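Entry type: protein chain
Record version: 2
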Amino acid sequence: MLDPQERREKAMAIFSEGYNCSQSVVKAFADLLPIEEESLLRLASSFGGGMGRLREVCGSVSGMFMAAGLLQGYAGPAKGPVKNRHYANIQHLAQKFKELHGSIVCRELLHKPPGPEAPQAEERTPEYYKKRPCREIVGSAAFILAQYLNESEAAAKTEDIE
């Protein structure tokens, strides 16, 4: 069983080191993922700032989805139950995130106007961390994912018994 609070704190610490929101979530689960860490971080790098500072889907949510896909997703042209089950799981994760934060969209979480921002990331200063909820958002995404993985592991064990 995963400790959701431990994964939350780990993701928040990773974000504080300067990794983007998406990288912070996936790196907090890197020990479980079937991909080498540098490749994982490169893959996640494009999703920070709501996909390259476009302020679309929050990078934390994208990181949560990437990790879920690597752990429980399908490969190839899946149809029917396999694809439907995975999409239902992703929607479940999104709903849990929305319940906490009200949205999965970066600009809405940060109260920013529509449209992309300049591609230059802001410098990570103490003021940056004070004015931005990103560190906490990263932590909650990791917490949600850890809880979900625990629940799905428990459900799989129950299915095995029946």
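Comment: The first helix runs from residue 4 to 16.
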